[in-house]
Design brief:
The protein is α+β, with helices and mostly antiparallel strands and 395 residues long. The chain has three domains: 107 residues, no CATH class; 101 residues, Cytochrome Bc1 Complex, Chain D, domain 2 (Orthogonal Bundle); 131 residues, Glutaredoxin, CATH 3.40.30. The protein is built from eleven helices and 14 strands. It has a six-stranded mixed β-sheet, covered by helices on one side. Helix 3 runs antiparallel to helix 4, helix 5 packs across helix 9 and helix 5 crosses helix 10. Bound molecules: heme C. It holds the Pfam family Cytochrome_CBB3. Keywords: Heme, Iron, Membrane, Metal-binding, Transmembrane, Transmembrane helix. It comes from Curvibacter cyanobacteriorum. InterPro entries: Cyt_c-like_dom, Cyt_c-like_dom_sf, Cytochrome_c-type_DH.
Length: 395
Amino acid sequence: MNDWVLTPEQLNTLLGVLLGLQAWLREALQALGWSGTVAGQPEWPLAWRLSAEVLVFEPGQARRLLWCALALGLALLGLALALWWRRARWPALWLSGLVLWAAPWGSASVWLVPATPTSFHRSPTGFTAQSIVQGQGHYQQHCVRCHGADGRGEGPDAPSLPMWPPNLNGRLLWQRLEGELFWHVQHGLQDHRGQRTMPGFASQLNDEQTWQVLDFLQAQASGRTLAQTGRWEQPLRLPDAPVRCARGQARWLHELQPQRVLLAPSGRDAGATPVDPRLVTVALPLTASASSSTADCVADTAGLAEALGLVLGVAPSQLGGYQLLADRQGWLRARSAPGAAGWSAADLVCRADTAAPAAPAAPGAQAPPAVDGLAALIAQMDAEPVQLLRGGFPH
Ligand code: HEC
C-alpha cells in the first residue's frame, strides 16, 4: 500500500484541488469576517500555505497528504455522527480519535511554505496590451537601475547591491505564485539574515501598476526566451486588445475564444491576410495604408504592436510579416517569421512539456512543400494542449 504512487494526472488534479481549497478558504474566512481585504481581494491570513513543489518532487508526500485528508474527513464524519446520534456517541468519538492518531501527521510541516497576505491573489489586468505597455513604463522608471533594460539583472546599480538581482527572463516568474510576486514587488525582499535585498515599491506603485509591471515582466521574459531558445517555455496568453469584426461579434480578442486566432501584423507591403475557416484571422495594420480588408477582424491599438514585439522579442518596427497563432484556450502557441513560405508543425513554439522537440530542418534541405502546413500545425496544437503552472499549481 505504501508504494502506491499518484500518476501525473492524479497529482495534477490533487494540486488543482489544493489550490482551489486554499483560495476557497481565504474567501470563506473573509466572508465570516475573520480576515480582511488586501489590494482589493480577500487576504490570506495564515503565515504559511501548502507547497506544490514538495508534493511534485516527493511522490510519497502526496500520498501522506491524502491519508491525512482522509483521516480528517473520517474524523469530522465521526464527530457529526456523535453529535446527531446519541447512541453511537462514544464509539464514533473513539473511532474519530483513532483515525486522527493513526494519520501520518509527522510530515505535515514539509508541505508548508511561508505565505504572504496576497499569496492567492489573481491578477485582475486580463493581460491586456495596454497593461503590458504601461508596465513597461513603470519598469523603466523604477526597476531598470537594478534589473537592467533587458531584465537579466545587470542594471547600473546592480554591482553595488548586497545581492545580485536575478535574471527575470528564465522560469523564475512562473516558479512563484503571481500573488507572491505582487507582494515581493510592493514590500521588497530580505535574505535569511533579515537584510534587505530589494526595496518595496508600495509607495511608488499602486496595486494596478504593480500588476501591470508583472504583465510586462512576463511578456519580456517570453520574448527573450523565444529569441534565445526558439521556444516559449511557459504558456503565455495572447495579449488582449480591442478588435473590430465584420459581423461585430466581438469587441475584445479574448471574446473570440474558443476559436483559434491568427494574428497578422501587416506592414505596407504585406499581402492581404488569408481567410481560413479553421481560425479567426485578425489583422493588425502597422501603417495607415496596410491592407487588411480580407481578415475577419481588425485590431487597432498601437499598444498591441508594442506588446507583440515584447512577446516575440523583436522591435515593434520589425513586426511586419510575423504571424501569431493562439489556440482555443487563448494560449499563444505558434509564430511564423517574415519570409516563411507557409506554416509548418515546426512553428509550434509553445509545447506541452512531455512533447518531443520538433525535429530541426536539415541544413540546406528544402522543406518539402507542405500539403497543408497549417492543418498539420493545428492538428498538433490541438492534440497537445498546454497548461500554465504557477508556483507548481495548475492555473
Ligand atoms: C535596488 C535594486 C532593485 C530595484 C530598484 C528593484 N529590484 Fe527587484 N530585485 C532586486 C534583488 C537584489 C532581487 C533578489 C532579491 C532576493 O532574492 O532576495 C530582486 C528580485 C526581484 C524579483 C524576484 C522576486 C522573487 O519572488 O524571487 C522580481 C519579480 C523583481 N525583483 C521585480 C522588480 C520590479 C518589478 C522592480 C521595479 C518596480 C524591481 N524589482 C526593482 C533588486 C532590485
